[in-house]
Beta-xylanase (Psychromonas marina), 329 residues
Amino acid sequence: PTVYSLSAFAEGFPIGVAVSEWNIRNESISNIVIQHFTQVTAENIMKPEVLQPSEDSFDFEKSNELVNFAQTNGISIHGHTLVWHNQSPAWMQGCNDVLDCTNTMNNHITKVVQHFAGEVDSWDVVNEAFLQDGSYRGSADTNDGIAWVEKIGKDYISKAFITARAADTSAELYYNDYNLAFNDAKIDAVITLVEDMKAAETPIDGIAFQMHVTDTYPTIENISAAFQKAVDTGLKVKLSELDVRMNLSGEATALTEVIATAQKNRYAEIIEAYLAVVPKKQRGGISVWGVSDQDSWLSTNENNHPDWPLMFDGDLNQKPAILGFADAM
Ligand code: XIL
């Protein structure tokens, strides 16, 4: 059996996919996007290093192409990402003091969000601010990227959200991070941040779980409990970058039927948990991090093992995973 249109199964929330500029130029891939998905995220082309390669000089060429593609096909856009340590231009690193760095950050947010106002429906405003123990990510853990907390202070997050809201009052604003369903310290840090922001009336609409998971981790109990913590804040909950690695150990050399079936069940249990825990009005949607295994950023893992994290194989055929996703809805 094949799934005719994955998004047709979703009631009232977007089903999204990350795409590159060449994905939307490739007819076979863009047809899959149009057929199955109602939202796209730019896998790389809306990141700071692409949008503002040198100071105050913005390059919207590739991202405008994505906006055109989305608008032509009635697809919404989740913007990714305004403030991050990675994939930010080296020149940003050179900002001098709190005031200068705050201006640099705010100028980027303002120009980008204003440029896409009315086109980008929601933004990952801040990405990956916390470490696994719930502390703020400092320069020791930024891989030569920008440690915004050291440049500006802990309130860089609130400042970023306030600036984003001022630039487009109708875009939804998310905090996005990984391992939130894996790690109590990390989800708790995010919940504390969100509660503090709410108490200060700082705008924030949602918590986005990246959801780069494996066949076995985190457990479905951990996932459900973390979703529940996010739901309890009253904000929207989004799964923003879902993919499911099946070969972390590297024992497998090919995607067998056994692995594909296990992956189908894993996709299904995650979608089921989302629908069971997140009430309808708090569902920000579910996005997968790429169309096919061949394009996945995890198609080869750190140890050079092959992997198959997504719902279409390298020949763009549907995998059982998409059935698991559809059945769960
Ligand atoms: C990844 C892209 O998929 C890669 O193509 C790129 O080389 C590095 O970034 N968390 C995020 C995403 O928020 O932006 C990352 O995307 C994956 C992890």
Remarks:
- The domain at 14-246+280-291 is CATH 3.20.20.80 (TIM Barrel).
- The mean pLDDT is 97.
